[in-house]
Queue: 2 jobs
Job 1
Amino acid sequence: MANDSLRRLASDLKNFLAAQDEDEFIGTAAPLRAAASVSERRTASAALPPMAEGETLTVEFARAAQPAAPAPAAEPAPNSPMMTTAQKTAALAELAETIKSCSRCPLGSTRLNAVPGEGNVDAAVMFVGEGPGFDEDRQGRPFVGRAGQLLDKMIVAMGLTREQVFIANIAKCHPMTDPLHPEKHGNDRAPNAEEIACCRKYIERQIAIICPKYVVALGGVAAKALIADAKSLGALRGKFYDLHLDSVSLPRPVKILATFHPAALLRNPGWKKDAWTDLQMVMDELGLKGARK
C-alpha cells in the first residue's frame, strides 16, 4: 500500500512538472520562427539528441492487414471535382453516425462513446492521432484531455485555430488495457493491428472527403498506419510523403508529415523544439507566419 502511494505521488509530481512546460511550446515558437530558412531549421533539429529508442513505435502490423470480420462494401470515393462544403458536411455526418453504431471489433462493446472526429470540413490541415483516451471516451470528442490542450497550443503556434483544422484518430473507440474497468484513469493503450484494420476505412474516408492539403500524423502509430513501409517515427520525421489510401481514392494529391504525439511531448518536454521544426515545414508550405507574441 505504501509503495502504491509513493508511485502515485511520483506520477502526480511528474505530470505537474510537465504541465508547467506546456506554455513553453508557443514561447519557443517565436524565436525559432526567425530562422533564416527551412534548411537551417532542419540542420538545427538534426543536432538535437535523437529520440529515445523506447519512444519509437513498438506496435507492428501489416498495412494491408484485413479485419477479422467481413468489411462492409466500400463507399464510393469522392472523385473530382471536389465535393462542395455542403456535400462534405453531409458525408461526414453520415459517416459519423456509422462510426457511432460500429461494432466491427471488440472496442465497440467496451467504449462509452465513439469519437469520429471534428473540425473544419474544408481544412487545409488535418491532424490524426492514434485513438481516444479517457476524456475523449467520455465526451465523444477527439483530443480534449491534457494532450489535446497541448495540441490546441501547437495549432495556435502555427497561426491557426482548432476551428480551422480537422482532428481525428486512427481508432474511433477507446483502446483500454483493462476494458472491464473503463472508469480507471491511466487505462489507455495504443490500438492493435486488428483494431486499426477495422477502423482504417473510416479514417481514409474522412481524409478523402475533407481532402486537406496536409495530414499531420501525431505519433508513431498514426504514422505507421498511414505511411506505407514506415519503419519508426524517428526515421519518418523531417520530410513529406505522398499519401496513398487503401479503400478510397483522393480527388487531389495530399501530403503527410509525421511528428510527435502531444502526449509524448508532455512526457518529454525537450522534444517540443523538434515538433515545432516539423510543424514549421507545414507552415512554410501554407505561408503561415505563426502566432504573434
Job 2
Amino acid sequence: MKKKLALLTAALMITASVAGCGSSGSTAPTASTAASTAASTAAESTAAESTAAASTAETASAASYVFLEEDLGVESYAIGFRVGDEELAETVSGAVQALVLNGTYDKIGEKYPDIKDYLCLTADDIDASTLPEEGSGDPNYTFKHGFDLDYPPYSYLQDDGSVGGFDVELCQAVCEYLGWGYESVPFNWDAKDMELNAKSCDCIWSGFTKEGREDDYTWGITYSNNTQGILVPADSDIKTLADLSGKIVGVQTATSAYDMLEDSKKDLADTFAELKVYETYTIAFNDLKAGAIDAIAIDMTAGSFLISGAN
C-alpha cells in the first residue's frame, strides 16, 4: 500500500512539474520578454504617429499656397522666330501638329500635370495632308532651341545639368520627327531677344506669350493657353486683387505678368507698396516662402509647378 502511495505521489509531482513548465512558457512571460514586447509595441506606435504626422505635414504643405480667384488675364503660348523666318516657322509648326496626330504631344503633356489641362491642340483641327513627312528634314541641320533656363515646367536646367520641361521635350520630339539634330540654348529670360538676333538660337520656345508681341516675331503655332494669376500663402489676408494694396508683390522680369503690371494692369500695380522684380520665379517663390514678399504675379502653370515642388 505504501509503495502504491509513493508511486502515486511521484506521478503527481511529475505531472505538476510538467504543467509548471508549460505554464511558464505560455501564460507567464519573463521580464525580458515583456520588456521586448512593450518596446516593440511602443516602436510601432511611434512609427504610426510619425507616418500620420508626415501625412498631415504633407497635406498642410500642399495647401499652403493658393491662387486668388481673380486673375490678371489669359494669354497664348507660341513659338517665336526671327522676323522673316516663315519657312522655318512653318516646318516646325507642321511637325508639332504631326506630333499631335501621333499622340506624342499628349504623351509629353501627361508628364506635366500642371500643363496638360492648358494644351490647346487637338487632332480634329489638323489637316494631315499639309504636314511634313517624318524624317523629311535635313539630317545635317541642327536646330538651336532658345529657352529660359529657369522656367519650370516649360523649360529648366535639372540638378544633373541636363535640360527638361514640356517645351524642351516637345522641341526635342520635333527634331527627332524631322531628323534634325537638337541643341539647347538656355539663357536668362531678359536676354532672349539678344540671343535670337545674334542667331545664337533659332527660336524662343519657353512659355512665350504672343499677345502684345504680334509684330515683333514670326510666330509659329500656338500650342498652349495659360492664365496669369496672383499666388499667395493660403493663410494670407489677401483674398482679392484689391487686397494687394500696400503689399509687396514679386514678378519675374520680362514676363507677361510683368508686362501686364507695367501696362494694362498698371493701375493695380500702382497700389502696391512695391513691385519687386526678380531674375527668376524660383527666387521669387523662395522669398514668398520666407515671408519677404506678400504675393507673386505668375502664370498658373508655373505657379502650380512651384507649389507642387514645395510639398
